[in-house]
Amino acid sequence: MAARLVSWHPGRVERVEIQISFDPGLRLFLSPAHRGGFVQAKVDGVSTLGHVVESLGVPLTEVGELQVGGHSTDTSHIPAEGEEIAVAAVAKPQTFDGPLRFLLDIHLGTLARRLRLLGIDTAYENPDIGDAALAALSAAEHRVMLSRDRGLLRRRELFAGAFVYSHRPDEQLDDVLSRFAPPLAPWTRCTTCNGVLRQAAKEQLRDELPDGTERTYDTFAQCVDCGQTYWRGAHSERLSAIVDQAVRRFGHQA
């Protein structure tokens, strides 16, 4: 059989047409024209599926299983003419090898304090150190980067990342706890610096306590890193409500 001749033009890319369906949980990332979740796209035939998905606005940190024609594939797949591709949301709970640790950007300070309140190892950089430094820190310390910044989550240096979907701290906390199911150890971390708390005797803290505190309270803890002292004071009822709700709904204790 004679070989079929194929013309090739230097610098010319043959575009291919594909169909992509997105999980409902990912559709908020798509442009308004594609919010229905189905995209008919013409691609260059050389870009990876991961690149195509990101170019449509969806961070790969939020993507779970990828299928082509009903068969699993990965982000390195090169889409071909006529392929039907399905993009699922990341499966929950999302797990990692080794201890689960987080890194939050400058806009998530309240979430950082609440995660620390629950005893979850949470780094938070304030003032802002910039995207490049955050990505490098995530990689160096094997921390999951939490952010609402899709550009930051696209950085290849990241150890791992996750988009924070809500602006509301209560919903942000629920989102992180349901997605990662971290073990909870309330009242064991410093909400100021993330250091570990240890029990402290009242007598050792007498010179550091505000007037009246020594007479009113008997149980104290102190951060081993920054020295911040804690006791169940005026704000304890509000903080206890946060802890109780988290333990009740996501109570995987450390």
Short structural summary:
The protein has 254 residues and is an alpha/beta fold. The chain has helices at 49-55, 109-117, 131-141, 150-153, 169-180, 202-205, 213-216, 236-250, and strands at 16-22, 38-43, 63-68, 71-73, 84-89, 102-104, 122-124, 144-147, 160-163, 197-200, 220-223, 229-230.
Which segments are poorly predicted (pLDDT under 50) over 5 or more consecutive residues? 1-9
Radius of gyration: 24 Å
Q: Assign the structural class, choosing from mainly alpha, mainly beta, alpha/beta, alpha+beta, or little secondary structure.
A: alpha/beta
Strand content: 15-25%
Count up the helices. Answer: 8
Shape: elongated
Quote the average pLDDT.
90
Distance between the termini: 68 Å
Oligomer: single chain
How many strands in all? 12
- Helix share, percent: 25-40%
Which strands sit side by side, in order, in the main sheet?
2-1-5-3-4
Major sheet characteristics: 5 strands, mixed
Order of helices and strands: EEHEEEEHEHEHEHEHHEEH
